[in-house]
Design a protein that fits this description.
This protein is an all-alpha fold. The chain is flat, with a radius of gyration of 16 Å.
Length: 77
């Protein structure tokens, strides 16, 4: 993932719900998909997907969170 995408994800993760809702509405109005979101094909997870999901459930580090202030310092914001 590119650095700019990581910064966007970091910024979204510390937004309050109201700001995130506004951003989502902007995304929908500005970047219309070629087809409806409902038309995107869903696929069953493969073996690798299932292994990753299992690891997320079992790895305690996947359940550790940091404050928004710490995140902003890490991202240099």
């Amino acid at each position: 993932m590119s650095a700019v995408k990581e910064r966007i994800l970091g910024a979204v993760s510390i937004m309050d719900d109201s700001d995130a809702e506004s951003l989502w509405e902007y995304i929908l109005s500005t970047f219309q998909p070629r087809s409806s979101w409902d038309e995107i094909e869903e696929v069953e997870p493969d073996e690798i997907d299932l292994m990753m999901l299992k690891e997320i459930e079992e790895d305690p580090e996947c359940h550790e969170f940091i404050s928004s202030e710490e995140l902003m310092k890490e991202l240099g914001l």
